[in-house]
Amino acid sequence: MADNQNDKSRKDMSAFWEQHSKEASLEEMFLDSQAKEISKMEEREILSLMCDVKKKDVLELGSGIGRFTGTLAKDANHVTSLDFMEPFVRKNKETNGHLKNITFVTADVTKQHFEPKSFDVVFSNWLLMYLSDAEVNELIINIIKWIKPGGKVFFRESCFRQSGNTKRDFNPTNYRSPSTYCAMLQLAKAETPAMGLDILFCRNIKAYIELKKNHHQCCWLLQKVSRTTSHQGYDTFQQFLDNKQYTKNGVLRYERIFGAGYISTGGQETTKEFVATLNLKPGQRVLDVGSGIGGGDFYMEKKYGAEVFGIDLSANVVEIAMERSPADTKVQFQICDVTTIQFESESFDVVYSRDTLLHIPDKFAVFKQFFKWMKPGGKLFISDYCHGDCEHSDKFKSYVAQRGYVLHTVKRYGKVFK
């Protein structure tokens, strides 16, 4: 039964792309009449988010007409460029065939095999949405096998709904949610001992936000790591959060308690009070650590004209923030772990965090990062849960352990700052 469904999926996708690959043009790749304008801005952004490919062996899946192939090949040791539409591969060869470190492959990725641990980097731009769920799961497992330990994977997809304005007689594309992809990625394991993919980040594409008011173009950067079940039965802390405290129903329940757009104590009332102390100016850059479903970020942008970048480890909460983003907002959201993510030094005027750091054991290391990311004269605002000096009940200790909280006394928090 599953094989029949997959065969139908491949036939539908082949028919779809036969219809949209006749000219092998940029407009066909984007399925959008604004392709040239978008591509100019978007290509720079995608490459800036990519991992380093210098002297690396790169596998490019769904390479299309080769928008990224040549750029990857300029730095890489070798690029294997694969697409299943012959017109696209021909165009890619015409454009990039002069580069001798590229192997062009015309093949269906769902039927392709490579030697284990052959690549340092796997790159894909718009591919998984053209595969069924079963095909995506199988491909992720294959990618884990194909890349070397520590290798990186970058991919980008259209989420939630169609983005391009090209008319389509039929559309078999699978517009998944970011949290669906995150779950698929984190559940996949291969090899012995078990290896999997850690999500370094998932974020929406700024070019689409600015040019098309579209917050639903998302990209991921992942890394191949060993898998151990060490987070209360889950492989990663993110899985633990999304399946325990921050299930979608749990997030919406918090919102009903704290008010529309908020999942932390005080909702908009305390947000207004706290943000007023920052004396924000238009254009100032704010990093919101633990941004939740975005209420505070939209408020800071609308009220003060701040440029806000929200990060949260929970895929469920970031997904809600992305999906609800007003068309006129430029707020960006990213799924990532604040303890491992890297930003350029002196990037932000303000680092703002509400009721988030209780999840983090090494608070000193995080504050060191905050200091590095803030511009000279930058401001840090945090609120967090603490505990008292008295002996705690077994019930309280059990609750804290079950939630994975790491609580300090106010006095100990003060020492961290010093």
Structure in words:
This protein has helices spanning 2-19, 26-30, 35-49, 69-75, 86-96, 133-146, 178-187, 206-212, 237-243, 248-258, 267-276, 295-304, 315-324, 363-373, 394-403, 410-417, and strands at 57-61, 78-83, 102-106, 119-125, 147-158, 195-204, 217-226, 285-289, 307-312, 332-335, 348-354, 374-383. It has 418 residues and is an alpha/beta fold. Helix 6 (133-146) links the parallel strand 4 and strand 5 (147-158). It is 39% helix and 21% strand.
Principal-axis shape: globular
Mean pLDDT: 93
* Main sheet summary: 12 strands, mixed
Share of residues in helices: 25-40%
Terminal residue distance? 63 Å
Number of strand elements: 12
Q: Radius of gyration over alpha carbons? A: 23 Å
What topology, given as strand order, has the largest sheet?
A: 3-2-1-4-5-7-6-10-9-8-11-12
Please state roughly what percent of the residues sit in beta strands, choosing from under 5%, 5-15%, 15-25%, 25-35%, 35-45% or over 45%: 15-25%
Element string (H = helix, E = strand): HHHEHEHEEHEHEHEHHHEHEHEEHEHH
Helical stretch count?
16
Structural class: alpha/beta
What ranges have pLDDT less than 50 throughout 5 or more consecutive residues? none
Q: What are the salient characteristics of this protein?
A:
12 strands, 418 residues, twelve-stranded mixed beta sheet, alpha/beta
